[in-house]
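Appendix C reproduces, verbatim, an entry submitted by the partner laboratory led by Prof. M.T., so that reviewers can inspect both the input and the predicted structure.
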Amino acid sequence: MLRGLALVTGHTVGFWQRLERLGSPADAAFLASLTAHEAAQCEFARRELAGDERSLDSVLALLESSGSGVGAKPGNDVSRRAHWPEC
């Protein structure tokens, strides 16, 4: 299941990035949020498959940046998270 998530979200990140480049300025923030959502899921899946104990960092960082109040936890330094080039 995680392999499927990594594969699908890897493709959809590219899709949303293309729409960001081609879309209207009025849609820029919305499209950027969709790209960030897919990238966070993709990074989570790839890191989880690799056995990374900090696999949730990208998801928690996205939740924190959305103002949901979720994500900021002691010891959860999201600035140290890895960036998977495939996502």
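Residues 72-85 have pLDDT under 50 and may be disordered. Additional entries are available on request from the coordinating office.
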